[in-house]
Amino acid sequence: MPVLEVVAKQPEIWTQLRAAAEAAARDEPQLGSQLNAVILSHADLAGALSFQIARKLGDEELRAMTVREVCLAAYAADPAMVTAAEADLKAVAERDPAIHSLLQPFLYFKGFQALQAWRVAHWLWTEKRETLAFHFQSRISELFQVDIHPAATLGSGLFLDHGTGIVIGETAVVGDEVSMLHGVTLGGTGAERGDRHPKIGKGVLLGAGAKVLGNISVGDYAKVASGSVVLKPVPAGCTVAGVPARLVNCPTDATPARTMDHTLADIAHDFVI
Predict the structure, then answer these.
(1) Nearest 5°: phi and psi at 230?
(2) What per-residue confidence (pLDDT) applies to 5?
(3) What CATH number does domain 152-273 carry, 1.10.1020.10, 3.10.20.90, 2.160.10.10, 3.40.50.720?
(4) Predicted TM-score (pTM) of this structure
């Protein structure tokens, strides 16, 4: 008979993050004050997230305390934002071989931090507080070099690797479990008005420097190779590459955003899309 392996259940994200902060405080006493202020002094992830976003975005125009109050109000009104942050942290831990604990993305990875600050900006947008939402967007762009319009729609379990240069337009939609690298643009093709940005399906992998332009769809679990310019819809489960992008493999890896496999098949089919 086959032997069943018993796999221990992983502690919840907040428990893992606190444990990593406690270990780091012991190993690096010079960082103890920071770790206590940002993580260990808080009762839950919402408290720590609000403090982290506030200390990053706060400035002379909008003090950190005010930013934190906005974040806490957002989390109280929509607890799903904290659940999404947990999924985002888990995604980084699963997909980035460079991290040693959840502490790294929470404290230092600008892709993760920009995404969490954007979630607050998006909440402000849905509450018709557009001016403050744009203020958040501006600060996020200045600090993290990530420019996401507050009206865009983004799922959870997202991994913004490196983050630098990511641009996501107003009417773009990004599904759950997507991974994208630096330099990705989800933009328009020119001076269109209305619904003009891409719709990215679940589990899609967008390589470094990929540009997807116009109101087109990239199907679930598709892969866009680094440096590609996509101007036409991409079928689910397919890989596109080139300028302009062409189909080079169908089907591709079943879960490219999770495996982070950026390689192309040895045999490229070169279908026109």
Answers:
(1) -100, 120
(2) 47
(3) 2.160.10.10
(4) 0.92
